[in-house]
Design goal:
One of its GO terms (molecular function) is iron-sulfur cluster binding. It contains ten helices and 23 strands. By secondary structure, it is α/β, with parallel strands linked by helices.
């Protein structure tokens, strides 16, 4: 039965949130806070949006004709300033749940459209060809025939990529491709549901030459094995704060150059003002050195990372720098509190699920300064609740929106240890 309802907020997935008469939440995709809408219930917790009777002043025309079909964007109908404000509120609420009263967002940044340089796309063989794109909500892969998010260089690669994957015997039905736009050019990690034949390798080599792709790596769908190089036309390299690194296939790369620069600037600004050459920064979850080499301009850096190939790539680039890279599974073998205590600052950029066991050692070590780069508000709450309990002060928060029109948000949070208790004179 059709009904009318008021939307009070946005849910975590970007859906409009209303309250039923009994207080239960009702999620309405496509609706915005403050709107009066007509809906058709879908189930007990969600409804279809039929029409907007009173639109929000923040409602805009979605810039992409695939919005609503493609699952890559959830809030293109919300203006970019309003989206940044909502994401800031999400981070603030995460820190409030950890116990920090009235967290102060000291800076905010939003990447521009057409700046996304990293994308993970699904590949599906169809009777009429190959679709390459993102999954629709509760549905199939939507072919990415347009995209206001990707850099033009990445989007321009897709037509030729469709043609070559269509010709591959290794692509029986399903596959995926992760593309990083490195300084040396596009770097592809292709996965297929069948093995690569010699003819497939020849086709990929020709594709790499024609599209000026230095490297295409490959592995079977679902495999966690180290990818093998299927085609290589030249060396790969990427500059991190002026240091040339050869990242492994599928390496982590910040989604946009602008966002990466904003994160680096926020982290550097949060360091202690007076750092001597002998002072050391401990960096956790260092990847290939996104922050490491920038930090090394301020002090010695002990960079820890669990991915073996990422550490090897960083080590090959550390000559002449003040970075020491070590391989360490920080969840199974965290850096202990005693070593943490000796650092002038702790910088961590944990994976989506957070810092896990490492966080307990950080709290026990009581470092004077902790700079936490978050990509998941829920993990941020879990990891920083202990900091609040230990007496840490939240000095500032920088909110960074690199994933335009999605619900993802990043933040750089700066924490200071409580002052040591004064000894009473005898």
């Amino acid at each position: 039965m059709n009904t009318e309802i008021e939307i009070s907020a946005l849910g975590a997935d970007g859906d409009g949130l209303a309250r039923m008469p009994n207080g239960d939440p009702l999620f309405v995709p496509g609706a915005l806070p403050g709107e009066h809408v007509r809906i058709e219930p879908f189930d007990a917790r969600s409804a279809h949006l039929l029409s907007v009777l009173r639109p929000s002043p923040d409602r805009v025309e979605p810039p992409c004709p695939l919005f609503g079909q493609c699952g890559g964007c959830a809030i293109q109908h919300l203006s970019l300033p309003a989206a940044l404000a909502w994401k800031s509120e999400t981070v603030v609420h995460a820190l409030e749940r950890a116990g920090f009263a009235e967290p102060l967002v000291t800076a905010r940044f939003q990447s521009p459209p057409a700046s996304r340089r990293r994308v993970d796309l699904a590949i599906r063989r169809r009777p009429d060809g190959v679709a390459i794109g993102l999954h629709a909500r509760r549905g199939e892969v939507v072919d990415l025939t347009t995209c206001p998010i990707l850099t033009p260089a990445l989007f321009a690669l897709l037509p030729a990529l469709r043609e070559v994957t269509r010709s591959l015997g290794a692509l029986r039905q399903n596959g995926d491709v992760l593309i990083n736009l490195l300084d040396s050019g596009p770097d592809l990690l292709l996965a297929t549901d069948g093995p690569l034949e010699p003819s497939d390798r020849a086709k990929l080599a020709e594709f790499a030459r024609s599209q000026r792709i230095p490297r295409i790596a490959w592995r079977r769908v679902g495999s966690t094995d180290t990818p093998e190089t299927a085609a290589q036309t030249g060396p790969v390299h990427h500059l991190f704060s002026g240091v040339s690194v050869a990242p492994p296939s599928g390496a982590f790369l910040q989604p946009s150059r602008e966002g990466e620069a904003a994160i680096i600037a926020a982290v550097l600004a949060a360091l202690p003002r007076k750092l001597a050459r002998r002072d050391a920064i401990i960096e956790l979850y260092a990847g290939c050195g996104t922050l490491s080499f920038a930090l090394s301009e301020k002090a010695r850096v002990m960079a820890f990372e669990g991915h073996t190939d990422a550490v090897a790539a960083m080590r090959r680039a550390t000559s002449g720098t003040r970075v020491v890279a070590e391989q360490r599974d920080l969840n199974r073998q965290p850096i202990m509190a005693r070593q943490i205590a000796e650092a002038s600052a702790i910088v961590l950029d944990p994976p989506y699920m957070g810092a896990g066991a490492q966080m307990a050692q950080i709290i026990d070590g009581k470092p004077a300064r902790i700079i936490y780069v978050s990509c998941n508000p829920q993990a941020l709450t879990r990891d920083t609740t202990g900091l609040k309990a230990a007496g840490y002060r939240l000095d500032g928060v920088t909110v960074i929106d690199q994933f335009l029109w999605s619900t993802e948000v990043e933040a750089v949070c700066v924490f200071s240890a409580p002052p040591a208790p004064r000894r009473r004179p005898r």
